[in-house]
Amino acid sequence: MVNIADHVARILERLEAMERPSGIVIVGVSGFGGSGKSTLAAALADVLKASTVSTDEFATESVMRQSDDWNGIDRARLARQVLDPLHRGERRITYDSSGDWQAWTAESKTLELEGDYFIAEGVGLFHPDVLPFFNLTVWIDIDPEESIRRGLARDGRAGHDDRSIWKEVWAPNDQRFFDRFHPKSRADMVVDAH
Q: Which of 18, 77, 109, 112 has the fewest CB atoms within 10 Å, i.e. the most exposed one?
């Protein structure tokens, strides 16, 4: 079983060893759906006292359709409202979060950074449009079938039966994105979620 504390310790070692930018250190955590991105990001954020956002907060209705680049994630909004302001050193950011996946309405959220770290996590994150904003990227490596199993179990515990969307849209989107953009090979670190 995966020991999150060991992964966090490895990431902290990497952060300590890297040349620090003068401002905010932006960490990206990505992997297939159900791989443990949110869990790892939350554990890391707890240690670093970092704020986080998920690509889920930048989803559009298109996330419910097949694509080869997770085009249902509004990476332009993520970059414009979050990553670019942080990259420029802004410590208070306001962004439009896709809080309601039924009505597809956005809700304004404001984050005040207390420390010098920020974590973005989610599927489709290591895309060429946003990769330059990250100081450290972490890919969570897992067998795609195991990822689906874990994602379905998690969603089932939350009372959601998402089997068809997982198998027909999200898992194929993950694989197409992986095949097209090679996020694992672009990551600074790979952690094993097996």
A: 112
